[in-house]
């Protein structure tokens, strides 16, 4: 048993930054209150810095941990003491992140996740590399049932390695549609910032915007979109710079990042499913992204994605061979077209059309009520409503068509492969049989006569479930999968 | 198709569901009366209209739910196989869920005050990803089912992939 210890003192810095983030919004309001008197503003700034430093020191002091060969225990909390024990056997992933301001100190933020829910994880604000390596070694020892001597040999031998090259990384960043989200974020940020600007400047800005021509508006929109795409490119390039995945025995090690470096270790058997993702853009250039579903509560805080990317982008034809090196037991095959009932496409399109009518009808009723209540007058109302309805119907029908055209299904003794499409993006899941948590079916009275069923597979994803649905399958096919799934090996 | 050997819930479950709906009805009516009192029954006030439309809609849903209790009861069944547990719901919109026994993490029994009066329990079957519920079954059946599921889940072989 080791002695209870504190994190390195640089953790105070990290704790203080976290405290500043918590109080930044009220402090911002306080800063611009009081008619911009500089004495008051200086007082606010010093107050924030002092307060965050005190919180940082207290959090650091009350955070202690100790490590035994079998478990790690963390005690934290100033007023409410919280003690967490995690046995190394239960650890799903160990993620170390090194923001740019940590690099001179050679410390890392460390997150240790188990298969439990979101609060069932340990987060260290700062640990030294030897401390992290000691934890990683103990995890490997606990999860590999072989002798210590063998571990020494196994843990040092890398069986396979793949590193993304600069060209592929650029292609990945350029073919990501995250830039549209970035445009939205930019717009939200600009709107928030303008609220805090002095009244005079706000009025000037409003007047300037109101007096511009259509050409200037168009130019502004194009400019914002270009900035959005550019910043999205930089963001992705920074995140996946020198992305490297390596396999050592049954353990995977993923490293990435330019300004913020990140490393993640995971045992291959903890992977719930492998997921190929192909957006419309990537399908045109025959590229695919590969990620995995894990049974830990890990969430990428930057884009809130639960799944862990193991290959940002790779040529479609090479994907299987490269993946085999890292997950040799996975059966990575192209699924056959799902065995649907005849006219399944017609049924799906009809269903979507009915759903569209219901939604558009409800929206129109709601709109009419609001219009009546507040005496709303909109110029070109009818053409605008017709155009919006037509766009909605056309888009949803195209999405439904792509979904049905891409439905695929395959299963052998140990694996189930499901392919589907959501919003024009093709998803293929390779799921080991023992990772499937349940099977759901649904069938309307109309479908009963056609002997058709919708079929859903439940797989664990992070700390919740992922539901993978195929529509209008033949009932006999669903029964085959059901008996395959429930048969005890 | 619901298998012939699937178990129905006890008949008293219908009474329990009706009580739940009645309680919901009373609560929504109370909220409706309180909010109208608060707004002085001003029927031309847009807020009053919106609140009453919304509450009326909720009331219709609850009444519809209560009216459909015999239908829901008739097609709400469960079955415990040797390797899996399945639940079936609905006739016009048929839904089923199957969980292999070796994926079950734990089995919880839940009993509120109304279920206690009628000696019923809800059984919640939890996997690593989600949970599903068999509603309102007899206490002794719930305990038997719980024990059966736990024993079966323990016996089912755990499979690991890479050691």
In short:
The complex is a heterodimer of chains A (489) and B (163). Chain A is an alpha+beta fold and 489 residues long. Chain A has helices at 10-32, 38-61, 129-143, 148-156, 166-174, 178-195, 199-210, 214-240, 280-284, 316-326, 344-374, 381-406, 445-450, 475-486, and strands spanning 5-6, 64-67, 71-76, 82-87, 91-98, 107-114, 121-128, 160-163, 244-248, 251-256, 261-267, 271-278, 287-294, 308-315, 336-337, 408-411, 415-422, 425-432, 436-444, 452-461, 464-474.
What report would you give on this structure?
The complex is a heterodimer of chains A (489) and B (163). Chain A is of the alpha+beta class and 489 residues long. Among the domains of chain A are: 1-61, no CATH class; 167-240; 331-489, Roll (PH-domain like). Chain A contains 14 helices and 21 strands. In chain A, the strands form four sheets. In chain A, strands 7-6-5-11-10-9-8 form a seven-stranded antiparallel β-sheet, sandwiched between helices. In chain A, strands 14-13-12-18-17-16-15 form a seven-stranded antiparallel β-sheet. In chain A, a hairpin with a 2-residue loop joins strand 20 and strand 21. The model of chain A has no long low-confidence stretch (mean pLDDT 84). Chain B is built from five helices and seven strands, in the order E-H-H-H-E-E-E-E-H-E-E-H. In chain B, a hairpin with a 4-residue loop joins strand 6 and strand 7 (131-138). Chain B is elongated, with a radius of gyration of 21 Å. In chain B, helix 1 packs antiparallel against helix 2. Chains A and B meet through strand 19, strand 20, strand 21 and helix 14 of A and strand 4 of B.
